[in-house]
């Protein structure tokens, strides 16, 4: 009899944990479909300002990496790639990651990783064509994100 209760409690715990993981890590807690068909992510104004600043930084980095490619200067690419890479993830305001939909987080982390990859390529084995291809992958991420998501203040 005690085994039966233990099994039932274990299953309930498992279901509850799975639900919490879904809400906090996959779905995000403030995302709805907006009238234009994109997923609207609602967040406090200070978090929205952080995300918008980060996106402007991405755009500046893309321009500088493109300049590095045009000048065939891997030092520019390495410097800029390091500045926009995964090191930026530690600067995210507390609690913000939890509120974001999984797909948004996935695109964001992938974008930071692409900056890291370009920096590493520029330092270790610079190839202009391969760097341009990575930059194109990164820009495809940006376009996909802007087509899919919209961020508004609560």
What this model shows, in words?
The chain has helices at 2-27, 45-70, 74-84, 96-99, 102-124, 128-148; strands spanning 31-33, 39-43, 149-153. The protein is mainly alpha-helical and 154 residues long. It has a single domain (29-153), classed as Up-down Bundle (Four Helix Bundle (Hemerythrin (Met), subunit A)). Helix 3 (74-84) runs antiparallel to helix 5 and helix 5 (102-124) packs antiparallel against helix 6 (128-148). The radius of gyration is 20 Å and the shape is elongated.
Global Rg? 20 Å
The number of helical segments is: 6
pLDDT averaged over residues: 87
Report the helical percentage.
Answer: over 70%
Level-1 CATH class name: Mainly Alpha
Please write the string of helix (H) and strand (E) elements: HEEHHHHHE
- Structural class, from helix and strand content? mainly alpha
Low-pLDDT stretches? none
Q: What is the second-level CATH architecture?
A: Up-down Bundle
DSSP summary, beta strand count: 3
User: Given the C-alpha coordinates, what overall shape results?
Assistant: elongated
Major beta sheet summary: 3 strands, mixed
**Ends apart, CA distance between termini:** 50 Å
Order of strands across the widest beta sheet?
A: 1-2-3
Number of domains: 1
- The CATH topology label is Four Helix Bundle (Hemerythrin (Met), subunit A)
């Amino acid at each position: 009899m005690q085994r039966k209760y233990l099994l039932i409690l274990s299953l309930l715990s498992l279901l509850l944990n799975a639900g919490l993981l879904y809400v906090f890590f996959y779905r995000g807690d403030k995302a709805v479909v907006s009238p234009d068909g994109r997923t609207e992510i609602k967040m406090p104004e200070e978090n929205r300002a952080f995300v918008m600043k980060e996106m402007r930084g991405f755009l500046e980095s893309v321009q500088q990496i493109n300049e590095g490619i045009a000048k065939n200067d891997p030092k520019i690419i390495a410097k800029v790639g390091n500045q926009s890479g995964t090191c930026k993830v530690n600067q995210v305001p507390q609690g913000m990651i939890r509120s974001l939909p999984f797909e948004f987080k996935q695109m964001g982390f992938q974008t930071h990783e692409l900056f890291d990859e370009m920096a590493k390529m520029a330092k270790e084995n610079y190839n202009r064509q391969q760097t341009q291809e990575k930059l194109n992958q990164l820009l495809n991420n940006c376009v996909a994100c802007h087509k899919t998501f919209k961020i508004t203040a609560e």
